[in-house]
Amino acid sequence: MNTALSFAPVVAERDVEVISRPSLSYWRDAWIRLKANRRALVSLYIVIALGVFTVFGPLFVPSASIQDLDQISSPPGADRSAFIVPPYVPWSGVTVNVRDAQGPLEAPGSMTLVGEATTQAVRMFWDPVPGAHGYRVYRNIAHPAPDDALGMPLADVLNPSRVSFEDRLDIKPGEYFYSVVPLDMNGVEAPVYTTLDVRAIRVITADEAVKRGLAESVADLAVGDEVKLKLHVLGTDYLGRDMLSRLMHGARVSLFIGIVAPFLFILVGILYGSAAGFVGGRVDQVLMRFADFVVALPFLLFMILFRILFKIEGGDSGIAPMLIAMVILSWPAAARLVRGQILQIREEGYISASRLLGAKTPYLVLRHMIPNTMGVILVTITFAVPSAIFTEAFLSFIGMGVAPPTPSWGSMCNEGLKTMLTHPHELIFPALFISITVLAFNLLGDGLRDALDARMRSQE
Amino acid sequence: MNAVTDRFAPVLLDVQDLEVEFDTYGGTVHAVRGVSFEVHAGKTLAIVGESGCGKSVTVQSIMGLIPSPPGRIVGGTAKLRGKEIIDGVTTDGEIVRGSQIGMIFQDPMTSLNPTMTIGDQIAETLQVHRGFSHSQALRLAVELLEMTRINEPSRRARQYPFEFSGGMLQRSMIAMAIACGPSILIADEPTTALDVTIQSQILDLLRDLQRENNMAIILITHDLGVVARMADEVAVMYAGEFLETGTADDIFYSSAHPYTVGLRAAMPTNRDESEQDLMPIDGSPPDLFAPPPGCAYFARCPHAMEACRNDPPPGFAVGSGHMTRCWLHHADCSRRIDDLHYAAAAPLEGRDA
Amino acid sequence: MIRYTVIRLIQGVITVWFIATATFFAMHAVPGDPLMNDKAISEEIRRNLEAQYGLDKPLPVQYVIYIGNMLKGDFGISFAQENRSVNDIIREHFPVSAILGILAITFAGLGGILFGALTARYRNKMPDIVIMFLVILGISVPSFVFAALGQFALVNLNAFFGTSILPVAGWGTLSHMIAPSLVLGLGTMAFLTRLMRSSMLEIVSSDYVRTARSKGLPTTRIFLRHELRNAILPVVTVLGPSIAAITTGGFVVELVFAIPGLGRYFVQAVQQLDYTVIMGTTVFYGAFLVFMVIVVDLLYGLIDPRVRLE
Questions:
Q1: Residue C216 to residue B99, Cβ atoms within 8 A
Q2: Distance from B193 to chain A by nearest Cα, in Å?
Q3: Is residue B287 part of a domain?
Q4: Most buried of the four, A97, A129, A153, A226, by CB within 10 Å?
């Protein structure tokens, strides 16, 4: 065995009592724990980014109510090019001599496009149908073939010698299918039709281009030049309003309600709950019974009821009524929580200990009660934010929230729903913003709860 | 007070060099560091030590109750009647846990399923291990409750844990643990959560049941009073190691390790021959994230020597079946500490427990 | 238990009375005569209503009449739809909402328990990570987005397969019910999954599960008899609020999927300011929710002996 064993007593003073970890204040410790939680930290950054987006974003984008009628419901990244054309000149059309004929009407032999199909006008003519007393023109955005879906009737041409049509009705860049159906003497459609496939390009007159700010002066532009229409990063909605701009302005509404409402009702809850907790006895009983009843009110139904009660006057955005209704209905949960905390802390050993050492009530409240309820309250606020955002969105979605034209994420979803099948971006963007915000606040709340919960702390 | 240990009683459970670790945030905790012991039929082995020294982990790892991860058994064997057991099952597939070895826990209030009747919880063991029908098992459960001295057992069997007092819950736990007639009962701090009079009743009950069924008991406790009352053999555990093992008499009257001496000095007695104050042991056990290289007790030992700092002491036999891990018993060490018991004969150097 | 039930029922009745009173005063605080809105009502209905509800009488008298009518189970006549009583509207459309709600809550409950138990069992492994990611999505996405996306997906799915796999909107057959009730239950299911998971994790490491393991019970028996049953308890306690969430969530789903349920009628009535329908439906829904909470509490008592025998 080891020959160098020394049995000399250890003389040096040994540290038997070693404190291996430095002591940390409650909040410092909580912050360190929060920082260690990656999901919570990322959520915190998202929340900060949303704050910047909301506060500063609207300063850099145009007003949310400007309409760009050239680009309606255009998705992000849509083609923005337009070609300069001369101003519109009326078209005299095509007339032919008609032969009369008996028997069933046939479909027009062929259809011909005149000039180029543009968003200014689409002009066409077709071979006359012997015996026809007129023609009906249809337009569709899909090929009518499989089930004879001709689309929208545009016009009845009731002069049999006229075999042309000019379409100027709200033409968007893209493909159109025009169909012509001959009519008999009674104006009844024959069961036949001829279809013309047309691809309309976006055009703009030089004057218009200058007016829209797409070029300096008319002199710079020649017919056939290409100009780019205004850029809408996230596209436009069904009224041609810039989505990004609306999302930013909408964020102001949604986040304002989402953050201010919880703060207000938790404040009310703190006052009510601590009053009940401190006074105690019969008063406490009565106060809390009342809170129980308010809790029992069906929340969304009463939100709706209150919104009717605080009727929106003309020009009112409807934010204030929603805020008031939310506070009136939401405070009891916070009040219960605070009361429970106060009652519990009042009985804690460290309060008695502090009292025995001569602490006065203000000291107890400042030093023990508030710090020990702060964590719970903070966590409650963090979780109340997403639910307030949900409430706003829900109400706006069913048309009971903010009044148009004020944008909010919920009302944008409501509008987006109508065009969901053709232009999904109008629904997806606001829905995405709601979801990300709610997600961030939920994860942040989880992180805060873990970081602030003293019970969890003792497990390490 | 205890019968002299019958060293010829058959060895039921033989544990050798058990090592258990836990992976945690801060690193690996070496909770049990090479523990060996034997359990003899019908006898009580007490494992005594401070909180966190690894007592519970030792027995729970034998039963396969260590949550894994984070826990894992990294070394050693446990043999029941010569058959090795892993995770409460012998190598040839026999379920030992609950049938051959029963176990009761510290806090009876939380150790029973709150939504099952006491009777069902006892019967369940019998249904699983003995293949009894439910009604058969229930009848036996009532008998077991009676055996553990619960009044009106048939009515009580239909009740739920929350209708029981702490003492009665612990009796029910015992009934559950002995339902299949185990040869070993592990009692992990069975009386810590109970008040003193109940504590005494439970200990009496355990001893009576032990006598009636010739059952071995492994008793985990930090209470030397309980050890004195119950144990035939004692192992003093500290920082994941056994510092001293021997009969109860060895430990109490011939303590051979400074830690055991310290524990005894810290124990209140009702004898007034010594008017000494209780002597607390300064400091706290070492951090098991990084166990000390030498003797685990080095930092707190009043008789620490240079050798203790870096060289772990081997086991020294200081009597028949009495082992201690302390350099003070080395042949070359000339120091003699007053309260310490020394081997009469020359020590058997390097002998492992 | 009987005493407890009676007390809960009495409390419930008082709560419903409170809801009715709050509704009454809220509606009467609206400036102007509730009969005076831009919807033209025939002179006959107006006279009938005024006679029936005594709208010319002072408020306290009106209140007494209102409560009296309500006690008789008479919610009045719709302003917007002549000759249709609110009772008829509720009778006709509530069953639709109820079926939708029951399907949704069943789906949410079973799914929540199943997925929650699954994630707890495979904690920090692949199934847990995937399901919890979906759960966080489920909690963060508003119900109307689910509804819209669900419908969008259905349209595309039907177009892709060239046949109607499930109808996109409407009501009538079982196939009409599947998509909306899935969509409606999704958010609640996510919430319940999360709850079930944490509850399960707590119980897996509880003392009594350790005891069960020390008894040498097979894993499945421990899971079914010791873990699952106790882990479900917290899920049952939030079933009341979940029913409320699903009820109001139903408004949106009914709107989007064009389902003729009471929720859609309520939203419509609100948009048309159809006062009697609003009041009647609010009180009806309020009473329904209060009653459901009581039922859930009693159900909880059946599962948890600690409550039952108190």
A1: yes
A2: 21
A3: yes
A4: A129
